Amino acid sequence: MTPGLVSVLILNWNGAQFLSRCLASVRAQTYRLLEIVVIDNGSIDGSADQMAGQADVRLIRNGRNLGFAMAYDQAIPSAAGEFILLLNMDALLAPDYVRILVEDMLPDTRLGSASGKLLRPAPDGARPRIDSAGHVVYRNLWSVNRAEDEPDGPPYDQPMEVFGVCAAAALYRRAMLDDVMIDGEVFDSSFFAYLEDNDLDWRARLRGWRSWYDPRAVAIHLRGGSGAWYTTGMQRHILKNRLLMIIKNDGGSGMWRRSPGMVAFTGAKALQLLLSRPAALMGFIDTVRLLPSALRKRRQVQDRRTVRPAAIEPWFQPYPYVRKLREGRLGRSRRQWTSPS
To answer: Which of 47, 73, 143, 152 is most buried by its number of CB atoms within 10 A?
Structure first.
């Protein structure tokens, strides 16, 4: 491991329309101690071939789409950096993004992760909306991007501790990633895609690691390149992943208090899927199939926790059911949150 080095890991899957711009934003960083690794998940659009001849890029080529979790688990062990920046191919960094986050993390060795303000692209003259200002976890155990879809503005201009960060442009301390591994995996490979970064947030919290949001570091998340949230297949994964995350990580007496809300929310989501994408309910079958493995991982997670359950409780925020149902946006976030610390 090289002190101060940031290993930038970019996962590519048919990202020809995004990848060159993403790499240009990395090369424009004012923080110069970088290595760049592109993991290609079986692209067929020629984007991997474009990377093959670039001297400053190390290319890992997979013959098929391994998903987010497995591909990054493949790349992280070979990264040389003290810090690991995971970057979606459809994200563009402002030039000082890496420098600001490294300067935040260097003095505080218990900061395990950090992120800047991720914005959605805005039409000329329009006020940009936030893609992510960190992660928030609700009392019904649904975890989402803090401030997602909210107009950018003063409420999100203060640096603060957050529950965790979105892996679309997240800087992680390598020591933290090594510390929270389960069965040699940073990200749970059974997740395939979505919520694997939320699961990592929770495991890190249980081990006493903290997470930081700094709005001075800005990135544009174009969306549309890294996955298809609303497809039946992805909704199936999200349902399964949320349940596996809860099984592995929740604990203490608060777990029982949260159970009614978790069951109610899961029932509401199941009804929503039944009416819109009934095949996604196979996520329940997937969860049952993976239950023995999840329980084994739970024993490891809970045995290794260093933080008392009471220390995690303030992070669980109330879920705005009435407003969400009125908006028809169950499972999405449009609320301002503040740190409990």
So the answer is: 143
